[in-house]
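Thread: flavin-adenine dinucleotide complex, take 2
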Amino acid sequence: MSDCLIVGGGIIGLSLAYELAGHGLAVRVIDAGQPAREASWAGAGILPPANVASDDPLDQLTVLSNKLHRQWSAELRDSTRIDNGYRRTGAIYLARSGAELPSLIALADQLRFGGIEAERLPPASMSQIEPALRPTGSMTAAYLVPDECQLRNPRHLKALLMACTERGVEIMPGVAADDFEIRRNRVRAVLTNRGPLSADVVCLTSGSWTAALAAKLGARPAIRPVRGQMLLLTLVRPIVSRIINEGSRYLVPRDDGRLLIGSTEEDAGFDKSTTAGGIAGLLEFALGLVPDLAAAQIERSWAGLRPSTTDGLPYLGRVPELENAFIAAGHFRAGLQLSTGTAVILSQLIRGLEPAIDISSFRLDRDASDARLSARRDVHEVPLH
Ligand SMILES: Cc1cc2nc3c(=O)[nH]c(=O)nc-3n(C[C@H](O)[C@H](O)[C@H](O)COP(=O)(O)OP(=O)(O)OC[C@H]3O[C@@H](n4cnc5c(N)ncnc54)[C@H](O)[C@@H]3O)c2cc1C
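Output below.
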């Protein structure tokens, strides 16, 4: 019997486990497969800056998360000796067509309005700061956003797994939650393929797979998978030093010469295949921005399933009608970024404390058919589409 049983060992579940164990709780994480291998491993690790003065709940969660990423990265490096690649590399946002221009200008205005630096780059200075960035076609505008950060998902997850173990978290791969034993408004046990497991508190952090499981608790979060394909290139040395964003796609340079190209956004159910069309589109995009990438080696490709929600907001909170069941899922294209804030907020809630920010907009019984925010995309793409 543990204090808290976490169902799903992705970035959300492992971050929550790390945080709860740091407060002295006995935590167990079960995962149907290998922990840290699904969407959380697949992502790009982009952490865009956020508006610190905003009263929008998602902005507030992002601000909290960004602050914590800096702290956690240092903490994890000290305790595990793993450098998770957290860097303030900055980003360039650009448009190559008149059609893209209005959304780029709106994005830059929105960033500046939120107190975030976004400097319009004349073509001459762009070729000075990123000489390899020579977009084909007519480049209509570019902005420099110096405060954009990144981290390397596989390294961050490896560090978190190690730190969780050091804090006494029990991690159980290959254990799938199938159902729940519920009596008098409490989950008494999680029924798994390895038998029942009991805990004082249960939290679902099962990403794209959450809707079916939550239904067995009587909750109806509108979460569905959206596939994103990625391509990894290797170069002898870095060819660009900043993240390059155009619309919904991006290039993310790592400091060892690797470069990520992302990403597609597809409705493919739970199919994690990569496709010829998807990868060809990513390559065409990348070569159209940085022609010298033609000489890079292709290291590998993969796809992950983003847990998307109808209204663009994650679900964070207690399951209505149940005293000891919680859900933290549906972070779509910002789960890596929002993981630290989510962990702290959920940990406060689970420990019976008032959460540091108002999470009523994220509650499980909200009307998610309100598509007010449904246009939200990847963390860094929000205002572009
Ligand atoms: C291509 C791509 C690029 C992205 N880029 C970024 C980015 O730059 N920045 C950013 O912030 N976010 C990004 N994201 C989004 C981010 O990766 C996700 O929002 C985040 O990983 C979701 O984390 P999670 O822990 O909820 O889900 P997951 O990582 O999918 O973990 C869920 C876990 O639950 C387990 N599970 C499922 N069902 C059960 C069950 N019944 N019993 C036990 N275990 C179960 C699964 O095996 C899995 O390990 C990207 C995603 C993709 C795919």
